[in-house]
Structure formats: structure tokens, C-alpha cells
Amino acid sequence: MTYPMLAGALAASVALCIPLAHGHEAGDIIFRVGAARLFSSEDSSSIDVDQGSLAGVDLHGNASISNDTQAGLTATYMMTDHFGIEAMATTPFRTGIAFHDTLLNAANMSIGSLKQVSPTVSLVYYPLAPGLDFQPYMGAGVSRTWFFGGKIDNRAAANRFDNLRASNAWGWAAQLGFDYMLTENLMLNAQARYIDTSTTLYLQNTALGVRMKSDVDIGSWIGMVGLGYKF
After folding, report:
1. Do 155 and 161 form a contact (C-beta atoms < 8 A)?
2. Rg over CA atoms, the chain
3. 29, 56, 108, 136: least surrounded by Cβ within 10 Å?
4. pLDDT tens digit string along 212-229?
5. Has residue 144 got a pLDDT over 90?
6. Residue 46's pLDDT band (boundaries 50, 70, 90)?
7. Exposure pattern of 20-50 as b/e (b: 16+ CB <10 Å)?
8. Which tens digits make up the pLDDT trace of 104-123?
9. Are 137 and 178 in contact (CB under 8 A)?
């Protein structure tokens, strides 16, 4: 075997032994799906009566919001090897609403629940070389939260509460996550996203002719673990 042939064969052997790198590159489109868990931390104002014969009365107390798990989806377009634009959405979370420590004993209970979605658009940054299989990332963006589908719990309905709703709101979002490439296109993904927003809860008691409200600052964490696929 001549030297050029030997060198060529050796180079080919080395190339076959080197594992292929599957990291993200400019132009990639990445979809991720998984289980998304919502953890809400709220700071609410005292509960006031804002309509009816008792309008202006401060009932004190506070409101709380429960957690839920749903399906999550993200879609990312890589503008460069390191920067991408990502959109995130989930199926609607069903979050429980409760009032605590108010001066109106009939309202100190689990009131009901609301559906909630918080689609988010973020700029994401991948700091490592695009050829690596492990790709951590961080991002920041804006989120719009919609509340809908209010339901009143049976006990609250027995006390004549009949309508629960919350105002929609904008907020900011930040996230950390990573992809680990399993094949050239398939990846394992884990991410945690923080969304900061505010809303006003409204609870109506038509029989008493009053409506109560509470302003709530919500800091929500959405954690998601799942799989991704890039095109």
C-alpha cells in the first residue's frame, strides 16, 4: 500500500471513530414537548368589596392560587449558532382559588378554580459551541396570561357565591434549560421558566348584591421535562 493510500485509509478510520456532533446550528427549527408543572407563589392585597351596598369595605385576608400539571410545547428557530427565538405554550392549567382570614366567614374557603394559559415569546442564548451534544441555554422574554373558565366550588356555591374571574395581564419571563442530543435530531430537554405577572381576582355574590376583589402579584415557575426534535 502506498503512503497516500495508507494516509487516506488512516484518516478515514479516525473519522469513523470520532462520534458525530449533533448540536444546534443556525437555521435549525426545534420542537419540544413534555410534562409542564406550574408552581405559583402569590402576594395578594387584602380583599375589598368593590360593588354593592358594602362597596368600600375592607374585608382584610388574602387570596391563594394552587398548582397544576399540564402538557407543554416550545418551538425555537435558531437565528444564529447561538441565538434563537422561542415560543412556549401549554394546555390550560386549572388553578384553585381560595380566600383566607377575611372578616366574612362565608368567604374563608376554597372558592373555585380558573383555567390559565401563559404563552411566552423569548430570546434564547446557547453559550457553548454548536457542535456539542450538551447544549445549556438561557432566555428572557414577554408573556401574556389569560384567565378563563371560572368554576365555583360546591361549598362556595352553597353560600351564594356565583361568579369567579380574573383580569388578563402582561408579564416578563426568564428561563434556564438544556438539551442533550440522543441522536442527530432527537434530544432530551429540561427547562425551568419564571413568569412574573399581576391580576385582579373578582368574586361575585349576586344574592348579597356584592362583589369582592383582590389584587394579586403572581410569580410562577413552570418546569418542563420532555423530548425535542430538530429539523
Report:
1. no
2. 25
3. 56
4. 999 999 999 999 999 999
5. yes
6. confident
7. eebbbeeebebebebebbbebebebbebbbb
8. 887 888 999 999 999 999 99
9. yes
Within the chain, residue ranges assigned H as helices are 3-17, 154-158
Task: Tell me the backbone φ, ψ of residue 214, rounded to 5 degrees.
Answer: -150, 130
Q: Are 72 and 37 in contact (CB under 8 A)?
A: no
Residue 89, C-alpha cell as written in the block? 405554550
Place of cell 381576582: 201
Instruction: Name which of 28, 105, 110, 104 is nearest 63 in CA terms.
Output: 110
Q: Would you state the pLDDT for residue 19?
A: 47
pLDDT score recorded for residue 20: 52
The highest-level CATH class for domain 20-230 is mainly beta
